[in-house]
């Protein structure tokens, strides 16, 4: 007979307020006893633990505690198990044992999603479902994702609204592309408007980030294996947007704020975006860049320009660019 999970009552009451329940040795001893009581049925043990905590703490409080546990290294294993158990427990508490084992279908998915949405914000729920897909509950999480996207579609949520509800507008660096919620949003946008997905994927972040900031994020994201594909997609979308709006060479130079980086222009990661764009305009970017360098006060004399190119030649990241600028200089006398 499994160990009685109700023995967690006083423990839950005393530790829950401090938010340290999952780290408490007594709690860990209790969960071990419950798990041993269920022998090889670990899922049933986790269900018993989750149901007891939910009854004692309340589902919303337990949900928040699980989310907070994600931030603590010592409790990360506990949070995943409890999330998975909660997904099973919520519909099961209103069903008989026989009905629970057969729980499936549209109504069950919507019921679970409704309870989840009452406890979690959209961004938190996205993280939970994506995390669950990597563990034991991929099929459940996938069904709930579909329900969530169906709900958003039914509520006529725009790409911008979902972007905001997933709180994707405040990330530093390329953090927005690394967020699990971002790939969740991309999936929704792709299904929302397959033909305009790229356009929406660009226009929506632009409401939160300026062209140069967004371009910097894209450049940084291109360096990561997990973010490179989506970064490339966004870069292409940005180029198409500039072409569609007939942005001139100078327009894009200013949009990327390259005129603010005179001292380190050749080292700017955004310069490559400008060079690529000029290639799409069938312009020679190196001849035009050389002309711009000569108009800057910093390089008003040939000696200063030579110094800049020499410095760029000594840097592995800019040596190719320096060679092409020197070639352009020779070609133009």
TrEMBL record:
Record protein name field: RxLR effector protein
Record's GO cellular component terms: extracellular region; host cell
Organism taxonomic ancestry: Eukaryota, Sar, Stramenopiles, Oomycota, Peronosporomycetes
């Amino acid at each position: 007979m499994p160990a009685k999970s109700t023995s967690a009552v006083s423990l839950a009451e005393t530790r829950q307020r401090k938010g340290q329940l999952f780290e408490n040795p007594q709690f860990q001893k209790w969960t071990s006893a419950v798990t041993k009581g269920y022998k090889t049925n670990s899922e049933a043990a986790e269900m018993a633990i989750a149901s007891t905590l939910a009854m004692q703490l309340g589902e919303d409080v337990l949900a928040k505690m699980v989310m907070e546990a994600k931030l603590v290294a010592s409790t990360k294993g506990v949070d995943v198990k409890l999330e998975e158990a909660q997904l099973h427990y919520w519909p099961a508490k209103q069903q008989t044992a026989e009905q629970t084992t057969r729980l499936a279908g549209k109504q069950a998915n919507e019921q679970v999603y409704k309870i989840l949405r009452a406890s979690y914000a959209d961004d938190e729920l996205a993280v939970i479902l994506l995390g669950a897909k990597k563990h034991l509950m991929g099929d459940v999480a996938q069904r709930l994702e579909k329900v969530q996207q169906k709900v958003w579609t039914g509520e006529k949520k725009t790409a911008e609204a979902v972007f905001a509800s997933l709180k994707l507008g405040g990330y530093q660096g390329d953090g927005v592309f690394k967020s699990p919620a971002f790939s969740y949003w991309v999936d929704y946008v792709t299904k929302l408007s397959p033909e305009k997905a790229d356009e929406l994927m660009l226009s929506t972040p632009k409401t939160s980030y300026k062209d140069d900031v967004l371009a910097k994020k894209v450049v940084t994201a291109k360096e990561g294996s997990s973010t490179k594909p989506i970064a490339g997609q966004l870069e292409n979308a940005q180029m198409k947007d500039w072409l569609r709006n007939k942005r001139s060479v100078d327009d894009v130079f200013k949009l990327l704020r390259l005129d603010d980086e005179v001292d380190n222009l050749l080292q700017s990661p955004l310069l490559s975006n400008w060079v690529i764009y000029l290639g799409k305009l069938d312009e020679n970017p190196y001849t035009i860049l050389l002309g711009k360098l000569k108009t800057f006060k910093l390089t008003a004399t040939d000696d200063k320009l030579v110094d800049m190119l020499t410095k760029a030649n000594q840097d592995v990241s800019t040596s190719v660019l320096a060679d092409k600028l020197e070639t352009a200089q020779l070609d133009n006398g």
